[in-house]
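Figure 3 (text version): structure tokens given as input.
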């Protein structure tokens, strides 16, 4: 059984999946960068990147904030 609560995919202008965001059971969001196979964990409440070695653009932090549980 998966521990994620919700996820969605973002598409580039050619219609390919560019990022996958997954809300985890602990309230964080995992951002997967499809092209590079990198992942970052972010706190959607504070919009803080918890994986500083993987830069997460502000636009992705905004999307992650929309996934947080209310």
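Below: residues designed for each position.
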């Amino acid at each position: 059984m998966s521990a994620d609560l919700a996820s969605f995919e973002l598409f580039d202008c050619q219609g390919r999946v560019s990022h996958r965001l997954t809300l985890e059971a602990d309230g964080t969001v995992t951002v997967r960068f499809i092209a590079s196979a990198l992942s970052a964990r972010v706190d959607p409440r504070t919009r803080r990147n918890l994986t500083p070695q993987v830069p997460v653009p502000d636009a992705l932090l905004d999307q992650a904030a929309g996934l947080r549980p209310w």
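The two ends are 23 Å apart (CA to CA).
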